[in-house]
Amino acid sequence: xxxxxxxxxxxxxxxxxxxxxxxxxxxxxxxxxxxxxxxxxxxxxxxxxxxxxxxxxxxxxxxxxxxxxxxxxxxxxxxxxxxxxxxxxxxxxxxxxxxxxxxxxxxxxxxxxxxxxxxxxxxxxxxxxxx
Length: 131
Fold this sequence. Notes:
Blueprint lengths: L3 H13 L3 H5 L2 E8 L6 E3 L1 H14 E12 L4 E12 L4 E14 L2 E7 L18
Parallel strand pairs: 1-6
Antiparallel strand pairs: 1-2, 3-4, 4-5, 5-6
């Protein structure tokens, strides 16, 4: 069994490098992911690919894990430094957020925003300053 923390760190690294294939390789086929910049969720690797492609066309997000805590039920809570810039380089948001990952068979099955009441609602405050 692979270390969930190492898998999650690899996923953040791939995201920051804009390596979609590298990140998706660490996820289940029907992975559930919040659309922080749009609101709601996507399910499945191709929906995540389309969402990230749209997001990176509007914003330049960078997420760096600061602390991880394993929980029961295959969950891992990750405190993250999230820096969101406009494509012109202006800082739109510089904050800490909480991500909660659910692992299944050594892969990421879901990621949820842990510090927002309803990730299915509107976009995260970090992405409120649309270009």
